[in-house]
């Protein structure tokens, strides 16, 4: 808390992770909205190493420059010495809610990298200052087809993951990379894998950062124009809409005609039957007049809106009239000629479609010019501009789905036998926690593919798991739980934990929270135990409830007999819970076991000293 208050306002703007409002999605949003025309990029790859005594002393020196508190610095050193706080670079657990990391690690990492961030900031300002000296004369720029892309440097750091992007020559990118690595190795004393820290072309090569694939693409890739098939479908829809409107208009006119005839027939009948004229208990002449006036206005507006009708009436009232002949007009009275001229003026004013046709042609011409202008701007942007395409690594997600047992080798959903020992509600919660974490984690261009994996593979794997547990068929499980996987609570109400198909369809990629990745949820199962152990307090932090249930931790890698350190067996970039927690027992209250399944808390939020050994 003290470190956060002192340092938060001093951190640079591209430092993310472990800060309020500066999470993973905020970093991705910065890349999508601010980075333009990248040419080269590289992410720093650290060798697997932890902060040793030299690094801890350097960290405490950095803290001592801002906070003059020897007791606080001594406490931090003792935490590292006792391995209560342990920071290891080059792994896959920082910022992922795994128990190997405590909440204090994030702020300590940001403090340790603060000097590096300032160096990067100075490099960016220096490059921008050199670039600003090159200016284009305004009239030369307007009279030429020159497009100037200034040299820019972008940087994003999320805890120990560092991405540097720049536009310009590769020589400049290599100099920037050497400067960055020198600062990390010499000033911070960190070990960097210079072979894996390679410069990549932003256009032709993708790069992984924060579990997301990044690539520089033209704007038309992110916002493609309508295809020919889509244009045909739109035209067909407009034709159907017009035909439906015509049908409704015809029906409305027919109903109006019937109603008007009924009103006139009724009034005429009353007039014939009454000797003193038509009388009524209610004065309805105002309402009837209003109805007929509304109908008349609609008819006139519809008539004036039709160019063909106006053209026909103008032609009928204007053609072949002998009163327009001079020798005939001279023989007629002036009043008759004036009346005819006034009538003809009114006909030309209200019925002549020339002006309306001119306005319509101008609107069509303006729309055509706007479309051509948009096409030219889109073409120029595609040739001169590059944007950031953020995509989920679908192949890695599918590999994780297949490794965890959601699908078979053919890619079809299958049951997971590890979960048969769980209660039905816990099975659904486990699947819901994995699915919701995936949906919250990705804010990407191909978000629809992630939705498909959650809505189809995970949903039907859960249904098949429930069906095999109760030795029933898939259809019987769907009939009992529904596709939304509803379960009844103790009060008889139905609870929905798994995101419904409608909810998934309505989800977008605009979530800006800082969710925990799926690593800890997909590789963990909590099996409820029926034991005679005395009641224990809930192991969740700040929870003193004693109405707990004992759960045993079962890890995915031990169940599948896989070694996460072997890249061919594990999913690249996916973290793993330490195997020492396998078969450890946790007393948890009903609220926190639900939160743990649903991903609201992680094993990082429980008291590791309160674990129970049960045979």
UniProtKB/TrEMBL annotation:
InterPro entries given in the database record: Domain_X, RT_dom
CDD domains the record matches: RT_G2_intron (cd01651)
Domain Reverse transcriptase: 1-214
Any Gene Ontology biological process: homing of group II introns
Source organism superkingdom: Eukaryota
Cellular component annotations (GO), alphabetically ordered: mitochondrion
GO molecular function: RNA-directed DNA polymerase activity
A Pfam family matched in the record: Intron_maturas2
Protein name as it appears in the record: Pentatricopeptide repeat-containing protein
Source species of the chain: Hibiscus syriacus (Rose of Sharon)
């Amino acid at each position: 808390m003290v470190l956060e208050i002192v340092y938060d306002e001093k951190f640079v703007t591209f430092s993310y992770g472990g800060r309020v409002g500066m999470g993973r999605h905020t970093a991705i949003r910065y890349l999508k909205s601010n980075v333009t025309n990248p040419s080269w990029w590289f992410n720093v790859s650290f060798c697997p190493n932890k902060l040793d005594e030299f690094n801890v002393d350097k960290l405490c020196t950095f803290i001592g420059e801002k906070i003059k508190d020897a007791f606080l610095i001594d406490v931090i050193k003792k935490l590292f010495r006792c391995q209560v706080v342990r920071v290891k670079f080059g792994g896959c657990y920082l910022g992922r809610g795994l128990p190997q990391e405590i909440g204090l690690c994030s702020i300590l990492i940001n403090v340790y990298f603060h000097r590096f961030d300032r160096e990067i900031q100075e490099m960016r300002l220096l490059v921008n200052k050199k670039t600003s000296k090159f200016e284009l004369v305004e009239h030369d720029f307007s009279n030429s087809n020159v497009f100037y892309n200034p040299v820019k440097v972008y940087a994003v750091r999320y805890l120990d993951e560092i991405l540097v992007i720049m536009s310009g020559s590769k020589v400049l990118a290599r100099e920037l990379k050497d400067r960055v690595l020198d600062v990390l190795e010499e000033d911070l004393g960190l070990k960097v894998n210079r072979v894996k820290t390679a410069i990549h072309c932003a256009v032709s090569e993708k790069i992984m950062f924060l579990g997301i694939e990044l690539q520089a693409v033209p704007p038309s890739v992110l916002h493609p124009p309508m295809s020919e098939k889509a244009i045909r479908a739109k035209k067909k829809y407009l034709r159907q809409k017009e035909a439906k409107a015509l049908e409704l208009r015809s029906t409305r006119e027919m109903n109006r005609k019937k109603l008007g005839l009924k009103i006139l027939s009724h009034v005429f009948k009353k007039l014939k039957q009454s000797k003193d004229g038509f009388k009524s208990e209610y004065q309805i002449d105002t309402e009837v007049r209003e109805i007929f006036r509304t109908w008349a206005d609609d008819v006139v507006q519809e008539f004036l809106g039709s160019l063909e009708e106006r053209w026909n009436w103008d032609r009928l009232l204007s053609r072949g009239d002998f009163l327009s002949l001079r020798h005939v007009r001279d023989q007629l009275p002036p009043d008759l000629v004036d009346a005819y001229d006034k009538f003809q003026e009114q006909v030309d004013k209200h019925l002549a479609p020339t002006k309306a046709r001119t306005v319509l042609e101008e609107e069509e011409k303006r729309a055509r010019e706007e479309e051509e202008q948009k096409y030219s701007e889109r073409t120029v942007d595609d040739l001169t501009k590059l944007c950031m395409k953020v995509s989920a690594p679908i192949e890695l997600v599918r590999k994780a789905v297949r490794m965890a047992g959601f699908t078979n080798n053919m890619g079809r959903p299958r049951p997971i036998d590890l979960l048969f020992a769980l209660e039905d509600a816990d099975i659904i919660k486990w699947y819901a926690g994995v699915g919701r974490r995936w949906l919250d984690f990705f804010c990407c261009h191909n978000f629809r593919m992630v939705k498909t994996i959650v809505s189809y593979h995970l949903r039907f794997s859960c249904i098949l798991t429930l069906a095999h547990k109760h030795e029933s068929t898939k259809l019987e499980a769907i009939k009992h739980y529904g596709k939304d996987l509803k379960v009844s609570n103790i009060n008889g109400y139905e609870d929905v934990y798994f995101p419904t198909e409608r909810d998934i369809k309505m989800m977008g990629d605009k979530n800006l929270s800082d969710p925990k990745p799926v690593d800890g949820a997909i590789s963990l199962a909590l099996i409820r135990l029926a034991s005679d152990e005395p009641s224990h307090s809930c192991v969740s932090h700040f929870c003193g409830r004693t109405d707990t249930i004992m759960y045993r931790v079962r890890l995915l890698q031990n169940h599948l007999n896989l070694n996460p350190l072997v890249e061919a067996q594990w999913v690249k970039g996916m973290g793993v819970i330490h195997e020492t927690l396998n078969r450890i027992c946790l007393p948890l209250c009903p609220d926190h076991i639900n939160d743990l399944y649903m991903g609201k808390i992680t094993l990082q939020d429980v008291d590791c000293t309160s674990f129970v050994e049960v045979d």
